[in-house]
Write a structure and sequence with these properties.
Distance between the termini: 71 Å
Order of helices and strands: HHHHHH
Shape: globular
CATH class of the largest domain: Mainly Alpha
Number of helices: 6
CATH superfamily of the largest domain: lambda repressor-like DNA-binding domains
Radius of gyration: 18 Å
Strand content: under 5%
């Protein structure tokens, strides 16, 4: 039995519909419709782009709850921390003229 992906359907609504989502992802509108209807499973590699397109209104965990997304979250968190640290270090050195 096919299981409709309500979270992906919601994501499509957030970005302006199935055609808009297809354009954002670089796929055909029928592919988007098949992912919503459960004819084909939404590819996991599309989930981060969908989350970004919805500005976090629909999360990867909602789109594909069968996948452990904690690695993605840790990686993103570490990247952000590194960026902040690098920014702080560069700001400190630019003001350190002793």
């Amino acid at each position: 039995m096919k299981k409709e992906n309500y979270s992906f359907k919601q994501a499509c609504a957030v970005v302006g519909g199935q055609t808009a989502m297809a354009r954002l992802l670089g796929v055909s509108p029928p592919s988007v419709n098949q992912w919503i209807k459960g004819v084909r499973q939404l590819p996991a590699e599309r989930c981060p782009a969908i989350e970004r397109a919805t500005r976090g209104e629909v999360l990867c965990e909602e789109l594909r709850p069968d996948i452990d997304w904690s690695y993605l979250r840790r990686s993103a968190c570490c990247s952000q921390n590194m960026s902040v640290k690098q920014l702080n270090d560069s700001n400190k050195s630019s003001f350190d003229h002793t």
